[in-house]
Structure formats: C-alpha cells, structure tokens
C-alpha cells in the first residue's frame, strides 16, 4: 500500500500540528501524567485516521470493453431512472455510490473512451446522501464516450465534510478504464448515469470497490 499524492500536504500539516501540540503539553503540563497520555493517544489516533484516508492500496483491476467498472469504493445508495438535466436532458439510469470517510477516496474511470464534456460546479456542502446534493453541492460532471458511441456520465459530489474535489481530466482527453480521474476528500458521493435499459450488476446497499466491482454491462 502507498499513500496517494493528494495526501502529502495534509499529512505534513497533521504531523506538524501533532508535534506542536505534544511539545506544548510536554512543556506546560509535564506534571499531569493523564493529560500527557491522553494527548499521546489522541495524536496517534489522528495520525492513523489521516494516513488511512489517503491510502492507495494495490489492486488487480477488472476490465472489459462492455463493462462499466465502479468508479469508487463505498456503498450503492441509488439505483433508479431519473431525469439528467445537465448534459443529456433526458431519462437516464442513475447508480450512486456513497463514500464514507473510511473508504479509499480515489475515483477511477468506469469506461475507456474520449472525454466529450467536463464541467466544475461550485456549490453547497449538503450531506452526500441528500438527493439535492446531486444538483446543489460542489461537483464535477464528466462525460466519456465509449468507442461504441455510448456516452456515460459520472459526477463527483462533495459531501458535508468533503471540501475539496480534485480532477485529472479535461475535454478531449482519451481516458483508460480504471485509471484515476480524480479524488474527493473526507466523505462524498459519485453518481453514474447510464442509458435506460442498461443491465445493472449491483444491488442497493451493496459494498463496492473502485476499479474492481462491475457496476453495469453496456448493451
């Protein structure tokens, strides 16, 4: 397992903060043993939590020309037909994955193809499971056209804790299935919009793995 590049600055700041807090406690409250041990334990727990959040575990990825691979770790919270109003402006099959703070937060391309559309939207920070988060929260929208001509839209959505969305794609890019297209910090959601009638291979509340679980099969 390695640490994702998006975590370097946060981890460095965390280490500095831990060092300062421990130094102050050791200097000012050296005679209060219970307080010093409480700060030591708190510091260790904080460091482990931040470190695990930015983990980048080694994986054997799934692949397939007609397969839509899960773009993120988490739990499936939505499988339904809905009106997609930003790009398609028609009915699509929406599959949404909720990412909790304990999940790996790397986002991966569900299919290979050409990026036909990309847009970043500043916005609110509603809880990621709130239905309005898809249209009101900070988010990015990416549409990749499969070589068969089928477009797939996927959307990074910030949550109540996530205050930074990172993306690595732009319009015109040729992207490869399961390669990283972005990262979201501290709890979030990814929506995938597929053509109506697409065979979905996951169920509600199923725990999924980014780059591994097969989300759907394109017709």
UniProtKB/TrEMBL annotation:
Role of this protein: Catalyzes the formation of phosphatidylethanolamine (PtdEtn) from phosphatidylserine (PtdSer).
Subunit structure: Heterodimer of a large membrane-associated beta subunit and a small pyruvoyl-containing alpha subunit.
Modification type Pyruvic acid (Ser): residues: 188
Source organism of this protein record: Pedobacter petrophilus
Keyword Transmembrane helix: yes
Site keyed Cleavage (non-hydrolytic): positions: 187-188
Required cofactor names: pyruvate
Alphabetical GO biological process terms: phosphatidylethanolamine biosynthetic process
Subcellular location(s) of the protein: Cell membrane
Cellular component, GO annotation: plasma membrane
Cofactor binding, per record: Binds 1 pyruvoyl group covalently per subunit.
Active site: 188
UniProt similarity note: Belongs to the phosphatidylserine decarboxylase family. PSD-A subfamily.
Lipid biosynthesis found in the keyword field: yes
Protein name: Phosphatidylserine decarboxylase proenzyme
InterPro entries cross-referenced by the UniProt entry: PS_Dcarbxylase, PSD-A
Assigned EC number: 4.1.1.65
Species classification: Bacteria, Pseudomonadati, Bacteroidota, Sphingobacteriia, Sphingobacteriales
Pathway membership, UniProt: Phospholipid metabolism; phosphatidylethanolamine biosynthesis; phosphatidylethanolamine from CDP-diacylglycerol: step 2/2
């Amino acid at each position: 397992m390695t640490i994702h590049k998006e975590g370097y600055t946060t981890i460095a700041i965390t280490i500095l903060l831990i060092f300062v807090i421990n130094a102050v406690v050791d200097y000012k409250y050296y005679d209060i043993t219970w307080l010093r041990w409480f700060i030591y334990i708190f510091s260790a727990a904080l460091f482990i939590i931040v470190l695990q959040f930015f983990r980048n575990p080694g994986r054997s990825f799934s692949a397939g020309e007609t397969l839509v691979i899960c773009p993120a770790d988490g739990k499936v919270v939505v499988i339904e037909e809905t009106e997609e109003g930003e790009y398609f402006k028609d009915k699509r099959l929406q599959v949404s994955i909720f990412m909790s703070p304990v999940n790996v937060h790397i986002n991966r391309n569900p299919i290979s193809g050409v990026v036909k559309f990309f847009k970043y939207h500043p916005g609110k920070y509603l809880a990621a499971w709130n239905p309005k988060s898809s249209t009101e929260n900070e988010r990015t929208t990416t549409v990749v056209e499969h070589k068969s001509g089928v477009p797939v839209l996927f959307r990074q959505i910030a949550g109540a804790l996530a205050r930074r969305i990172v993306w690595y794609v732009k319009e015109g890019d040729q992207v490869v299935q399961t390669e990283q297209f972005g990262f979201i910090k501290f709890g979030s959601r990814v929506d995938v919009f597929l053509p109506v009638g697409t065979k979905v291979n996951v169920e509600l509340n199923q725990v999924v793995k980014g780059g591994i679980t097969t989300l759907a099969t394109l017709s």
